[in-house]
Amino acid sequence: MKLRPMTWGRWAELIFGALFPTVVLGPTAALGMFFLVSALYTVVMSILLGHQALQALTWAQNVFGLVWLSVPGMGGIISLWLVVLFGPEQIHRHPILRRFVISTIVLAEIAALLFLFGIGTFFNSPLANLKTTWIAVFILISSMAVGFRYLPSLLRETSK
What we know:
- The chain is an all-alpha fold.
- It has five helices and no strands.
- Helix 2 packs across helix 3 (95-117) and helix 2 crosses helix 5.
């Protein structure tokens, strides 16, 4: 596969649709995996010791939800990099890659919508402020826009 020529529009798609989410979600996903392991450990130990099992289970449920929303997001970001750099025409030539890109973009769009509609409950923590909320919304909406832009051309049977 060959990189397609970059225009100003493609640079904007690459920066706002793929680079910003990569920079934000990459370290967050690694941290999320750490929290996932610690949540599992906390739940198991609290059940075994009988100390505040319900509180530990509630905390673990929030961690599981965030991690499960970030996994399709990471796949969608990989797909956005592929689509912006190589173009839908080249992805059409590889059926397995095409199915991967379509499915991960759709799953990432669903996860982003779930996150956006749940944003009121997620950002009510004392650590969140208005600036982080707007940054998260901007990153999600910009990557969703790039995904929605390329999805129709990927879903067509034959490319242009």
